[in-house]
Recover the amino acids of this structure.
């Protein structure tokens, strides 16, 4: 979202929400990042940036893109994805003028928080206690990417769509985003759920499957997944 | 270099090579219209929007695609933007990651 689409009563709270999230995410990364993961962290941040450059057209003339932060969340942890995606969005904003300064908190909330957490927990829920190489886990990664992107789009649609209610002139003329929820939410969800998410789903599922089957030790909670998937040791009957 | 890391780097490189595909779609993303586009969509420019939009001028607007009108020219600009963004983030996070893990043992485990 560029500057001008959200009023201060929306963009300031979203900035304020992001400050403790960034702080905690930074602390989490310091505690949990393993030496072996360092090159993958660099790769994840670079990947986030480039995947967002693939604009996909949809019927009606609009465009949009995948984000890739569900994949980063599944491999390096959702808090790591908060950091890599936020910094990728910062570079987009400061160097390339993509995404506003005032709306930076909102953009980070939608793409660097909602997608990683919805994506990761959807994947974890579907995967259950299956082994790291199990097909159900790959399906979970794909569905996680899809739901993460779709929910984030609905959030962005919601933030824009409440503007006419929150910010209109005395005569009822909208001051920021002019369209209401009945237009913005369906428009955002339609493009993301049926078009841009195709890239998100394929990238998340394929890259997860490749890493899980070739070097699962990169995955942040690999040990927990491995121990949960082992059959429970029960005491031998007397 | 580890095989998995090397292959993922190759995939990243392929994404960078394919990046001009991202400018074929010419439409504006939903809710990212410019002042002129908003004017023609709804017939006016909302007052608050007008005061905030264009608040900041980026050094490389539109990912380097606005300097040329041909697809090849725009692709070159887009390549440059992709290379700048990708290398900046990769170097930055490699340094951050190294700093965060400098006192840790390289066990490859959690």
């Amino acid at each position: 979202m560029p500057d001008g689409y959200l009023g201060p009563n929306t963009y300031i709270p979203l900035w304020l929400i992001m400050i403790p999230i960034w702080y905690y995410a930074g602390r989490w990364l310091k505690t949990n990042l393993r030496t072996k993961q360092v090159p993958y962290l660099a790769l994840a941040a670079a990947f986030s940036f480039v995947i967002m450059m693939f604009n996909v057209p949809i019927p009606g003339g609009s465009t949009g893109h995948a984000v890739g932060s569900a994949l980063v969340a599944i491999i390096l942890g959702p808090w790591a994805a908060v950091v890599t995606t936020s910094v990728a969005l910062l570079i987009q904003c400061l160097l390339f003028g993509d995404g506003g300064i005032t709306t930076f908190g909102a953009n980070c909330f939608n793409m660097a928080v909602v997608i990683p957490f919805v994506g990761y927990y959807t994947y974890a829920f579907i995967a259950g206690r299956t082994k790291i190489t199990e097909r159900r886990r790959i399906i979970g990664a794909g569905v996680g990417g899809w739901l993460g992107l779709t929910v984030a789009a609905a959030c962005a649609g919601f933030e824009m769509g409440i503007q006419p209610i929150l910010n209109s002139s005395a005569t009822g003329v909208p001051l920021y985003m002019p369209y209401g929820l009945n237009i913005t939410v369906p428009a955002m969800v339609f493009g993301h759920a049926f078009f841009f998410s195709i890239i998100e789903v394929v990238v998340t599922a394929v890259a997860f499957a490749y890493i899980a089957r070739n070097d699962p030790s990169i995955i942040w909670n690999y040990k927990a997944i491995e121990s949960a998937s082992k059959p429970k040791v029960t005491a031998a009957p007397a | 270099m580890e095989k998995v890391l090397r292959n993922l780097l190759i995939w990243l490189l392929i994404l960078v090579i394919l990046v001009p595909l991202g400018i074929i779609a010419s439409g504006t993303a939903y809710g990212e219209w410019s002042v002129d586009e908003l004017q023609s969509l709804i017939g006016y420019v909302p007052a608050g929007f007008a005061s905030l939009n264009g608040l900041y001028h980026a050094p490389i607007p539109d990912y380097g695609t606005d300097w040329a009108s041909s697809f090849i020219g725009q692709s070159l600009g887009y390549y440059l933007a992709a290379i700048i963004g990708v290398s900046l983030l990769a170097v930055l996070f490699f340094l951050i990651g190294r700093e965060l893990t400098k006192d840790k043992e390289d066990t490859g485990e959690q």
The first helix of chain A runs from residue 8 to 32. DSSP finds nine helices and two strands in chain A. The beta strands of chain A are 56-57, 63-64. The radius of gyration of chain A is 19 Å.
